[in-house]
C-alpha cells in the first residue's frame, strides 16, 4: 500500500512539474458517457475505481474527442497493405481499426475495434526486453545485445553481419537474442515465462493465435537464418532453432488494443500496472526501455517518428502500435494495412494526430 502510494506520488510530482497549455490543462474529469449516435460506438469506461491522484494534464473528455476525431479522420484511408510474408496475416480484415488510450489512473478511452484480438508480433519485443532489464539489468542488455538503432529494416541480416551482433533488442535479431537470454530450463518454460509476464502487463489472460503461429512457423526461414548467424558470432544464448520457435510463438500471442493499452500504460506508469497495482519493472529501468523504444521502435523509420510524434513507441506487422506518454498515458492504434517499413498506416496517423493536437512530443519542452 505504502509503495503504491509512493509511486503515485512520484508520478503525480512528475505530472505537476509539467506546464501544459491552458487548453490541454483541465484536471482529469469523471469519464464521459458514450455517445451512442456516433458511428464508431465510442465509449469511455473507468476500469479502475482506485484513488485518482495523478493529473494527466488533459481531461478524459478531450482524450475521447481526439480519439473519436482520429478514428473518423483515418478510418477510410486505404493506404498500405496487410503483411503477407506471414500468409495468415494477409487474411485479417483490412478495415479493422481501433484506438485505445489508457491513463496511469487506469481510465480507458476507446473507439472502433478495440476488442479484436490480433497478433502482437514485434510489439512483443519491448516487453521481453523489460523482463531482461528487470532480471539481468541494463548493463547485460548493453553487452549482450546492444542499444543502437540499425537504420535498417526489422529483419536485416546486413545489420547483424556489419556489427557481428544483434545491435538492439527491437529488431528481429535482438528480439531473438532477448528470448535466448530469458532464464529457463526448456523452450516450453521459456515461452510460459514470457507469456505469464505479458499477462501481468495486460492484467488479463492471453493466448497464442494458433493459425498465425502455424503460418509463421512454416515460413520463418529468414528468422532461422538470423538466429544461426547470431549464434555463429556467439551472440545467441540458447539453441537457435528453439529460440526462433519461442520468438515466433511470442509474436503470435493475441492481444486486443485494450489489452495492449494496459501494457503500455504500465510503462507510462513507471513500470507499475495501473489496473492491478503490480510492479513489473523497476522504476529506474523504465527510462532505458523507453529510450530504446524511441530510438529503435520504428526501425528505419525511427528518426522520422521521433520528429513527427516524439514518443517512445513500438510497432508490429499485426497492425498494432503502442506509444507511451511517460507519467500520463499510453495510446494504442490497431489496423492491419502497413507502410513500406512494416508499420500500420492508420495507427501511425491516429497516434500522430493525437500527439500533435496535445503537443505530446517529449521534445517540445512541456513534458
Ligand atoms: O519476425 C517477424 O518477422 C515477425 N514475427 C514480427 C515482425 C514485425 O512485427 C516487424 N514490425 N513491424
Automatic annotation (TrEMBL):
Assembly behavior: Homotetramer.
Catalytic activity: L-glutamine + H2O = L-glutamate + NH4(+)
Name of this chain's protein: Glutaminase
EC assignment: 3.5.1.2
Metal-binding among keywords: no
Signal peptide: 1-22
Alphabetical list of InterPro entries matching this protein: Beta-lactam/transpept-like (IPR012338), Glutaminase (IPR015868)
Compositional bias ranges of the Low complexity kind: 30-48
GO annotation, biological process: glutamate biosynthetic process; L-glutamine catabolic process
Domain of life: Bacteria
Keywords associated with the record: Acetylation, Hydrolase, Signal
Amino acids binding substrate: 122, 172, 216, 223, 247, 299, 317
Region (Disordered): 30-49
Pfam family, one: Glutaminase
Family the entry assigns: Belongs to the glutaminase family.
GO molecular function terms listed in the Swiss-Prot or TrEMBL record: glutaminase activity
